[in-house]
Amino acid sequence: MIDTPQQRRPSIRRQLSILVAACVLPVWLIAAVMARHAYVSNLDQVSRDMLENARAMTMAVDRELANVQASLSALGSSPSFEKGDFVALHHQSREILKNYPGADIIVADRTGQQLVNTYRPLGSKLPKRNNPDTVRRIFEEGKPVVSNLFRGAVTKRPVIAIDVPVVINGAVAYDLSMSFPSLVLSSVLQSQNVFKDWYGTVVDRNGVITARTRNLDEYVGKELTGDLRAALSRSNEGTLLIATAKGGTTFAAFSKSSFSGWTVAVAVPAEVALADLYSWMRWAVGIGVASSLLGILLACWLASRIARDIQSLVQPALAIGSGEEAPAVATASSETSELAEALVQASRLLQRRAAERDQAERQLSLTIDDLRRETAERIRAMEEVRRQEQLLTQQSRQAALGEMVGNIAHQWRQPLNALGLLVQQPLLFHELGQLDREFLEENVAKSMAIVRHMSQTIDDFRNFFRPDKEKLRFKVADEVAKVLSLVDGSLQSLGVSLRVQQQGDPEVDGYPNEFAQVLLNILVNARDAIAERGVAAPAVQVSIAEQAGRAVLTVTDNAGGIPEEILPRIFDPYFTTKGPQAGTGVGLFMSKTIIEKNMGGLLTACNVDGGAQFRIEV
């Protein structure tokens, strides 16, 4: 069976359950962060507590050793040493040992030979001390020494010794030592019980286990290994987490004694140290899960009620779709009741709107007819504008053609006169009897040069009026020279003085022939103004320059200037002051269009002293 799109959509019950889950998720995340923080904080607290416990145990061990050292120092001040009365010393030592069960007192000389040993009866033959380094330090340094763990020469058991020097007359005379089993220190550690399942260890300067709260026979006398040994070698105190052989973890802390140089280490299983934290976390997780499940169940129940209310709105909605008035329905929630009432009102409103829509459609139809008529009128107006533009273009071409014919006439007039004279010369020379072949060849060569010049003039004018299809990069001076070659004849016929001034050699991207046509229109207007006003000493100056990266071309005449009242209108289409027979009024309009629209430049005009100036900037 294929699911329809409606069946694939999630139900409200499911969406509310997801909403509750989404709301619970941040709470769980926050709880996880708080649990993590509590775990880390508890872990830090356990580490601090264990380190403090290790320091306390170290101080307890130091106090025990200091008491032994104080007792030995008191015995060392006995007058029996000066008298050499070792019997008395033996008895005095026995009195002191009543406070230290299991301990022995030894008196040795510089060679380490035991003179008194309370472990043996008085008068027994005694061997040398089994820790010669300690004896040597006593006599060399004259300071008390706490030994590492060693095996007694007489007792043959692992013992710890505290040696003090016996000074007579300012010199060390004897080595007075008390040796006791490591069980004494183990008792000291056990008296400092903090955790239920903790265990403490005392390690001497050689890394050998000296005392332990548990399993003494198994560990005492063996070297410490593993991570704890490495940590002891790096620092005097600290904490670390140790992995046990059974796969568990143990918290450990250690502190080194400045009195003996020994280190006391304390360790406790992680599950014991963090038992309270684990219990709290189990309760927190249980309560959180129960609360989340209760919330989801409540959301499912509410979703069922909401779903029933929404399903009761289906019938009114279908009635609206069929154009009928929706029936009233009763729901359990205020929102759905309001929605049901709104559906009834909407059905009535839709019927009223349907009538209004029909009226609007009729009005829209009338509006569309008006728009069609207005569009047709605008199309006719646009066609009229295009026709006017075509007429402007045609008039511009006709004006240009007329100028071309006039300029050709000016350019040909002088060559035609010269050609006429050359044609008449052979007959005259023949009548004078001076006609020969050399004269005829010279006459023919001059005539053909004039004919070629006139033919080149036709080509120049034809190329000048050929339209440019693509933009080219050209030099302004080249186009000025081409235009002046076309109009210099007409200007000379009026006696116009033409002067060209050039600063730099600017180049322009554009249409060279159209640019030349604009310059031609300006020069022709200047020529016509000079001819119309009969200027006594007519002159035209063409200036070429480059300013701010742009090419600037100015044409200045002395024909009296442009009247101020018509100066703003000279670029308007069909505006002319020459009369209908002399001008069309499109030359300057087309020139401004070419420069500003086709080439992105600027064409302006102003009056200067005695004349007018046109400025082209591209």
UniProtKB/TrEMBL annotation:
Parts forming coiled coils: 343-391
Catalytic activity: ATP + protein L-histidine = ADP + protein N-phospho-L-histidine
Residues in Histidine kinase domain copies: 407-618
Keywords: ATP-binding, Coiled coil, Kinase, Membrane, Nucleotide-binding, Phosphoprotein, Transferase, Transmembrane, Transmembrane helix, Two-component regulatory system
This enzyme's EC code(s): 2.7.13.3
Record's keyword annotation contains Lyase: no
Gene Ontology molecular-function annotations: ATP binding
Family annotation (InterPro entries): HATPase_C_sf, HATPase_dom, His_kinase_dom, HisK_dim/P_dom, HisK_dim/P_sf, Sig_transdc_His_kin-like_C
TM regions (residue ranges): 16-39
Full protein name: histidine kinase
The organism of origin for this protein: Geomonas paludis
